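Morning!

This is the sequence you dropped in the shared folder:
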Amino acid sequence: MDSETTFVPRQAWLTLAIASVASFMIAIETSIISLALPQLRAGFPDASETKLSWVVNAYTIGVASLLLVSGWLADRYGRKKLFFGGLFIFFLASFVAALSPSADFLITVRVFQAIGGAMQYPAGLALLLAAFPPARIQTAIGIWGATGGLAAALGPTVGALLVDAFDWQAVFFINVPVAAVVLVFGPRWVEESTSSAAAERVDLLGVPLASLGVGTAIFAITQGENWGWGSLNLLITFLIAVVLVLAFIVRSRKHPEPLFDLGLFKIRSFRIGSIGTVFFIVAFFSWLISLPTFLQGAWEWSVLETGFAIAPGPMLCAIISPPAGRIAERVGNGPLLTLGGLCGVAGLLCHLSWTGIEPDLLKGVLIPGLLIGIAAGLGFAQIIGTTMKDVPRDQFAMGGAGRTTIFQLSLALGVALAFTIIGNPNRPSNEVLDGLQITWIMGICCYLVQTVLFASFSITEKANARHKVG
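The structure's back. Tokens below.
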């Protein structure tokens, strides 16, 4: 590589810093909201469990259903405008959410918080990718991806401390000073970028089809445990989601200015990265979400003890991700994702062998968690890098919106499957452990698919590179 293609201007590093701080804020807020549910129950005693679940679901569904629209808006009207506009909405909604007088009011504000979050995701990634030269994009994504691991590591512990000290309001107030600093300094550090290829007008019918289709799918997944996976209500809801998504696909293939360019899936790296995202995210989050329930229930550990026990794995993810990005610039994403998949398999096999009814911090939690942390460090950013590496620069926001939509669907699926398999956490410990072991077996299968998928991707990439050289 020559120096002109590898030199990174100061503006790019500042853009990376702003995008990373915003990403961390959103990720840690998502990871600690579940810790505040007991305090929310106490604060809103008249609210039912179903209603309180919408404090989480309203945000999840809102973000997922608006990502594709946000991607087009960012490419068309300016990624910087949409990013900081979304951050301002998120800032205001967080402040108001902390002052909520009722559960209904809080759920409503969470919808506005979701609008702000959805505006930031694709615009932030697009700003980041546009700021860096192509030869250094993997390094940038590696650093940006490390924020997710850091948020996963700090979320349970920091969240437990904040909620214990300041009650559930702390979950939302923590966003306010962070967002304020970014809003003050960020606009002068980040340069605007748009897409010359973005359509001036978008398929107006495709917008509600995509939003309602994805939103209905997420809603069905989140309601699976409550309604029962074989219930008529759930089957009808899934059917509606499928019909809406299929209608969106048919409409997008025929319309001259679609909301989302399905041609992106003709790009092999985007297609493989999207498929790999599903299996990796289901494996990782089914582990991350379900293990604390077992540790607090069967082992009777406190929230704080559980948070500190699980934190080393995600922390290792944050440490590994940046250098992994630099290595990917030399060897490609595929080998790292292959190795990551094998580490994930090893970590879950350790759980199956060593994690039992009797507490064992070293063998039952720490060693498996560190292996899964390596898998995550070689997974999160590398899958983003694979998915986005060949996306045209004019479609960065659109591609990022599609990638994040798949991420959100996979996250909801992984969490729903884990809780459904485990069942009632108040059952006898051996029954909860049996359910947990099934989720680990499911995770092993997902990691094996990831390993095979990216091993074959690596072989094909190397063969194509030799062909080009020849």
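Headline: The longest helix spans residues 429-469.

More detail when I'm at my desk.
O.
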